[in-house]
């Protein structure tokens, strides 16, 4: 099992930025996929951005050009840089890490964007 420690959520105004961090308890180069999901009130959970161990990334259409996923392998940490935040980005953001067919989840971070 992979332990994930998240940080960086908060309350911001529209147009501002936040950076979420997720540190894994294992070498992230051993993790097949690592990234972020979000759950907004009244909505279904959706994949925001994910990075594979081959350094390929994918992201939700609505965040392309605004959100960037990156990693610091030496720190076993994945980041989600969120720029030009919009009220519709308000959600709980969860870090995920999948390896050996198992998905591990972080505790979740509240991100609130006021208009």
Q: In a few lines, what is going on in this structure?
A:
The protein has strands at residues 4-7, 10-13, 18-24, 33-39, 46-52, 57-59, 67-72, 77-82, 91-99, 102-105, 109-114.
Using brief descriptors, characterize the structure shown.
115 residues, mainly beta, 7-stranded mixed beta sheet, 4-stranded antiparallel beta sheet, 11 strands
Characterization of the model:
With about 120 residues, this protein is mainly β. Helices cover about 0% and strands about 55% of the residues. The strands form 2 sheets. Strands 2, 4, 5, 6, 9, 10 and 11 form a 7-stranded mixed sheet that branches. It has a 4-stranded antiparallel sheet with strand order 1-3-8-7, with no helix packed on it. Strand 4 (about 35-40) and strand 5 (about 45-50) form a beta hairpin. It is globular and about 40 Å long. The mean pLDDT is about 95.
- Spell the H/E element sequence: EEEEEEEEEEE
- Radius of gyration (CA) equals 13 Å
What number is the mean pLDDT? Answer: 95
Strand content: over 45%
Number of strands: 11
Largest sheet: 7 strands, mixed
Tell me, briefly, the overall form: globular
Low-confidence stretches: none
- Judged by helices, strands and strand pairing, the structural class is mainly beta
Q: Counting H and I runs of at least 4 residues, what is the number of helices?
A: 0
Can you give the helix content as a percent range?
A: under 10%
Q: How far from one another are the termini?
A: 39 Å
């Amino acid at each position: 099992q992979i332990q994930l420690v998240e940080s960086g959520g908060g309350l911001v105004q529209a147009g501002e930025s936040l950076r979420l961090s997720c540190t894994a308890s294992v070498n992230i180069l051993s993790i097949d996929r690592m990234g972020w999901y979000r759950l907004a009130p009244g909505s279904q959970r959706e994949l925001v951005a994910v990075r594979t161990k081959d350094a390929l990334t994918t992201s939700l259409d609505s965040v392309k050009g605004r959100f960037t996923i990156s990693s610091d392998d030496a720190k076993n940490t994945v980041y989600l840089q969120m720029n030009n935040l919009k009220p519709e980005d308000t959600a709980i953001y969860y870090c995920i890490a999948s390896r050996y067919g198992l998905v591990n989840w972080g505790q979740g971070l509240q991100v609130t964007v006021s208009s």
